[in-house]
Design goal:
about 75% helix; about 190 residues; mainly alpha
Length: about 190
């Protein structure tokens, strides 16, 4: 029987996210992640094999979903829940270099078929959660929607696009920019 894991995968993945933000995916080494997590590079090799294996594990874990619905459920009403869930889904505001480093990781993900397939699964998860949130706002009479799938696609586009625009302008906080853009879109669907 093997020794119990004293370092959780969650801790390693948090360290990986911090290291990617600090140095970028292209320059990232297992030593960067190990230093951030307080473990040896050998432990990472034993658990994940390679840098690629670690990054794939990160993609699988980070993109499981569920958080959007939790935030939605904690809001006072379905429409506010939808807005809060989308705002929360983009994560905390980051420094320009950190944002650029995470965006560089996205480029890696899009260029590699295995990573891209995981991104597609993540996108499906986000769309399913957004669909449930929109359906809740429709059922509560807060939105009038003829084509839920089209609205969900537009919300997801704002979710992704506002982050890029915000990174270029930084005229307000990311949360404020996301809330503003989403509220503008949803105004056309209010009864």
């Amino acid at each position: 029987m093997g020794r119990p894991r004293t370092i959780t995968d969650e801790r390693v993945m948090a360290a990986l996210a911090a290291a990617i933000g600090r140095v970028g995916a292209a320059r990232l080494t297992l030593a960067d992640v190990a230093g951030e997590a307080g473990v040896s590079p050998g432990m990472l090799v034993q658990r994940y094999g390679t840098k690629r294996g670690l990054l794939l594990a990160f993609m699988r874990q980070a993109h499981q979903g569920g958080r959007l619905r939790e935030v939605y459920d904690s809001a006072p009403d379905p429409l506010e829940g939808l807005i809060r869930a989308v705002v929360d889904s983009v994560g905390p505001e980051t420094a320009p270099e950190e944002f650029a480093n995470h965006l560089g990781f996205l480029h890696l993900e899009l260029a590699d078929e295995e990573f891209r397939e995981l991104l597609a699964v993540f996108d499906e998860t986000i769309r399913a959660e957004l669909t449930a949130c929109v359906a809740g706002a429709v059922a509560a009479g807060q939105l009038v929607v003829g084509d839920v799938a089209a609205l969900v696609a537009a919300i997801n586009s704002i979710r992704n696009g506002t982050q890029i625009t915000w990174a270029m302008t930084r005229s307000t906080s990311l949360a404020e920019a996301m809330r503003r853009d989403l509220t503008t879109l949803l105004a056309g669907y209010r009864p």
